[in-house]
Design goal:
This protein is α/β, with parallel strands linked by helices. It has two domains: 154 residues, 3-Layer(aba) Sandwich (Rossmann fold); 69 residues. It is built from seven helices and nine strands; from the N terminus they run E-E-E-H-E-E-H-E-H-H-H-E-H-E-H-E. The strands form two sheets. Strands 6-7-8-3-9 form a five-stranded parallel beta sheet, sandwiched between helices. It is globular, with a radius of gyration of 18 Å. The protein starts with 6 loop residues before the first strand and ends in a 16-residue tail after the last strand.
Length: 242
């Protein structure tokens, strides 16, 4: 572990404004954490504490309400993801930051091997090489070979989750965000996923993750950050309590 974190979050908060009801719905409040190369930081806390909101804020699925998200690039430049422009965010997603969500998104009729290899294609990897690496990862996650050349549209939830994981892991990002990556998987496949995550840590990937089962946190996390549920503000003029 180096002294300088790949990611440092200071005072991150996110709330949603329900204009029709004149309410602020807080999701995350005053989150502070650090993520280091080769280590996994686990976000824990009860439902409603905003764990997924933190990951979505880092990936800029939406803008945080307040706080700083300081990311150190491969070249050593520090960028506040909360303030970065859309071009910077798209470049970081393409080259350095990966996100495995709970939902698999893909173009209709696209073969599974190409869905998995898409992050490599975006980096200029050929289709031949991309498919080769995708097949290796799909095999490692026990996705049946007869499924590789067809669309994942009709796959089971567990199969889609494995495809989603393969796509998120294939490019070996500098920072990897994982939102309950093993939630739909059986014990055997979960062990395979944990093994792949450990390999990524060995490769120096910085990982921020949410896990469904506390025993997985104990098993794989190097650092743990616990979030508490924020109080709900009554209306848009009400201050969120610290």
């Amino acid at each position: 572990m180096t002294d300088r974190p790949v990611l440092k979050i200071e005072g991150f908060s996110k709330h949603f404004n329900l204009h029709e009801q004149d309410k602020l719905i807080p999701s995350s409040h005053n989150v502070n954490l650090e993520v280091f190369s080769g280590r996994l930081t686990a976000l824990v806390g009860p439902t409603g504490s905003g764990k997924s909101s933190v990951l979505n804020g880092i990936y800029r699925t939406y803008l945080p309400s307040s706080g700083r998200i300081l990311y150190t690039t491969t070249k050593g430049h520090m960028i506040d993801l909360a303030q970065a422009d859309e071009h910077q965010i798209l470049e970081l997603r393409r080259k350095e930051i990966g996100f495995v969500t709970q939902f698999l998104r893909f173009l209709p009729r696209k073969p599974t091997e190409d869905v998995v290899a898409e992050p490599l294609y975006q980096k200029g990897v050929s289709q031949t090489e991309g498919r080769k690496l995708a097949r290796e990862l799909l095999a490692a996650l026990n996705v049946p070979e007869q499924l590789w050349s067809i669309s994942p549209a009709t796959f089971s939830g567990g199969e889609k989750q494995r495809v989603n994981l393969a796509r998120g892991l294939i490019s070996i990002p500098r920072l990897l965000l994982l939102d309950e990556p093993t939630a739909s998987l059986d014990a055997t496949t979960t062990d395979l996923v944990i093994g792949l995550i450990e390999r990524l840590k060995d490769d120096g990937v910085a990982i921020l993750a949410i896990f469904h089962h506390p025993e997985l946190v104990k098993r794989i996390a190097d650092d743990v950050v616990e979030l508490s549920p924020p109080l709900i503000a009554a209306n848009t003029d009400t201050e969120l309590n610290p």
